[in-house]
Amino acid sequence: MRHKPLIVDLSDIKSLSLGASLEIDVQGTPQELGLETEGVEFISPLRVQVNLLNERDVIDAKGKITTEIRLECNRCLNEFSRPFERGFHLEYHRGSPKVYEGEWELKSTDLEKIYYQGDAIDLRDGIRDEIFLGIPMKPLCQDTCLGLCPLCGQDLNKERCNCRRKDTE
Ligand SMILES: [Zn+2]
Ligand SMILES: [Zn+2]
After folding, report:
1. Residues 6+ apart with CB under 8 A from 8
2. Is the pTM of this model over 0.85?
3. Which end of the chain is more exposed for a tag (fewer CB within 10 A), N or C?
4. Cα–Cα distance between 163 and 28 in angstroms, integer?
């Protein structure tokens, strides 16, 4: 594996003709890929597949992240693991956001773009953001999870409790 597999040397892309694409398919630990993501526990290696399309000053990056993560159920608080797969589509534009009289020009279209300068594109931040976006806000171990009794804390998936019985009668 190359030292920094998700930092792409633009000479690799610019040598391609316009409209041609470069495939990246790497697998490794978050550390190896530079994708350590705070608050996310990966329990399998990450696989990142990216197709980089050369459109002169815009590099179009389409890809997929595949791994397995550990989550805590929002209802019963038990930990569980789940396959993670997320497709993404990012656009890298040469240059920097235009600045007028010291203020950032924040047109809504600009916010979706990622700017790059120099002779390499660093895909890591964009991919890390996609990992965050792909994680459910309120994960459930199963759709039918019964959660904990609000009164005694019993895990109702395992056993019903007496206070619950009173509620329903
Ligand atoms: Zn649960
Ligand atoms: Zn109870």
Report:
1. 22, 24, 52, 120, 121, 123
2. no
3. C
4. 48
The Å distance, Cα 77 to ligand 2 centre, comes to: 16
Per the listing, tokens 């329903």 go with 168
Looking at all shown ligands, the one closest to residue 143's CA atom is 1
Strand partners, 120: 9
Bridge partners (DSSP) of residue 93 are 58, 115
Q: What pLDDT, on a 0 to 100 scale, did the predictor assign at position 50?
A: 95
Q: How does DSSP classify residue 156?
A: T
Do 68 and 29 contact (CB within 8 A), yes or no? no
Is the distance from CB of 89 to CB of 62 less than 8 angstroms?
Answer: yes
Q: How far is the CA of 90 from the centre of ligand 2 (A)?
A: 48
Calculate how far, in angstroms, residue 145's C-alpha sits from the geometric centre of ligand 1.
5
Domain boundaries, the chain: 7-138, 145-169
Report the C-alpha gap between 80 and 137 in whole angstroms: 15
pLDDT under 50: residue ranges of the chain: 1-2, 108-111, 169
